[in-house]
Design goal:
This protein has 417 residues and is mainly α. The chain has helices at 2-17, 23-30, 34-61, 64-83, 88-102, 104-116, 122-139, 142-151, 153-174, 190-193, 198-208, 212-217, 222-243, 248-276, 280-299, 305-319, 324-330, 338-367, 381-403; strands at residues 372-373, 376-377. Strands 1-2 form a two-stranded antiparallel ribbon. Strand 1 (372-373) and strand 2 (376-377) form a beta hairpin. The two termini are 30 Å apart. 57% of the residues are buried.
Length: 417
């Protein structure tokens, strides 16, 4: 049940970071500047963010099966639009449809986990979901680049659409919202199982924001995820090829290393948190390390390659702390709002790349000295430092806000509204 939803989430994550290895192809195809390239990539996040809270409400009221199957189908259609886009307008539309449709994947997975996994395994399930997603991002690294070189970016995207259509059929045929539909005992509590009205769920969104931890956790993960997906998902490859003289393949491999380190650490930190019965301590340590790591990468130019690689691994591993946001917030609200709070937190997660990807591009264009190579803009080190400082600022804010959260000790500290 959970695994088929995870496949859809894997493909959604693959779509999220795919532009990172297609920057030259997309720039040449649509005549893009740094800002318009960042905007094209961010169209995925515009709709993704807009859909998160509605998705959380629908996960509570409709159930994840319909969301995941319908999302896969629409994502396939959006991928076809992007693959066949004759102009930038159509490419933006395709990315927009993709982002809005795959937005249901993670919240649907968390909702399924609430029913199919024991409560003590929820943080671990969140980490495993991140692991599966970032496996998709790994496919969007060197493997995708090799496929694009062999078959062109449009051909690869058409094939991706076909896979999404098949996933939609499998989810509809096999996935069920609750174990009771298959004759098993459900892990969902009575509070989690009850289905609110749509209007009541909308009121629940406002109620979620009235709680201390969810209010802070809405802003925190964007400062962790935003820099990772802004670097590995768009600007890392051109930065590394320009200022470390790496090949596209080597630069893509380093970005994949960042994502892989992030993926592996998520389940580990989730399980560690469950075992220690601590959320805040691990989150503080992780966010502090990411802040220090990004500071070194941005302001210490021309690091030896082994040191650069180690720093990237540390940043990725520390960034896995963001998976705690979902369990941390879930323990801080009434159980029947689990889907709503998951959508709200995932909105905060995606605000990071949504704002930072075009923001960094805008800063790069502002610092551009007019240098071009094969129709693609080349940016100086000072331009990248200025752009990446936006990432650093949000990471710093996230660290401060984590310090202000209240420990739950992995217990449901709020049981009624």
């Amino acid at each position: 049940m959970w695994g088929l939803g995870a496949v859809f989430y894997l493909i959604g994550f693959y779509q999220r970071v795919a532009p990172a290895v297609m920057t030259e192809e997309l720039t040449a195809a649509f005549g893009l500047s740094g800002a318009t390239l960042g905007n094209l990539s961010a169209f995925y996040f515009y709709s993704y963010v807009a859909m998160q809270i509605p998705t959380g409400i629908l996960a509570d009221s409709w159930g994840p099966r319909r969301l995941l199957a319908g999302g896969s189908l629409i994502a396939g259609l959006g991928t076809l639009v992007f693959a066949l886009a004759p102009t930038l307008l159509w490419a933006n539309l395709g990315r927009f449809v993709i982002g809005g449709s795959v937005a249901v994947a993670f919240v649907g997975l968390l909702k399924l986990a609430t029913h199919w996994f024991a409560p003590r395994q929820f943080a671990l399930a969140s980490g495993l979901a991140l692991l599966v997603g970032i496996i998709g991002a790994v496919f969007a690294g060197v493997p995708l680049q090799l496929l694009v070189e062999a078959y062109g970016w449009r051909g690869v995207m058409v094939a991706s659409a076909v896979v999404l259509f098949l996933v939609a059929l499998m989810i509809w045929a096999l996935v069920r919202d609750d174990p009771q539909e298959r004759g098993y005992i459900s892990y969902a509590s009575l509070e989690t199982s009850r289905t609110p009205s749509f209007a009541g769920a909308l009121r629940g969104v406002l109620a979620v924001f009235s709680y201390h931890n969810p209010r802070l956790l809405f802003f925190i993960p964007g400062g962790i995820v935003g820099p990772v997906l802004t670097f590995a998902g768009l600007w890392g490859v051109p930065f590394l090829t320009t200022h470390y003289n790496l090949s596209n393949t080597h630069a893509a491999a380093l970005c994949t290393t960042l994502l892989a380190s992030w993926a592996v650490s998520g389940p580990i930190l989730g399980a560690w948190s469950d075992r220690m019965e601590r959320r805040k301590l691990i989150y503080v340590l992780g966010s502090g390390l990411t802040l220090l790591g990004w500071s070194g990468l941005i302001f210490l130019p021309q690091l030896p390659l082994p040191v650069l690689t180690l720093l990237i691994i540390i940043i990725g591993a520390a960034s896995g702390c963001m998976v705690l946001s979902f369990a941390y917030s879930k323990e801080s609200i009434p159980p029947y709002l689990a889907g709503t709070v998951s959508g709200m937190i995932n909105t905060g997660v995606m605000l990071g790349p949504m704002l930072l990807q075009p923001g960094v591009g805008w800063m790069l264009d502002g610092q551009w000295q007019g240098q071009m190579l094969d129709g693609v803009r080349i940016y100086g080190l000072s331009a990248y430092q200025a752009g990446f400082s936006l990432m650093l600022a949000w990471a710093g804010l996230a660290f401060v806000l984590v310090l202000l959260t209240q420990e739950t000790n992995c217990q449901q500290v709020v049981t009624e509204i």
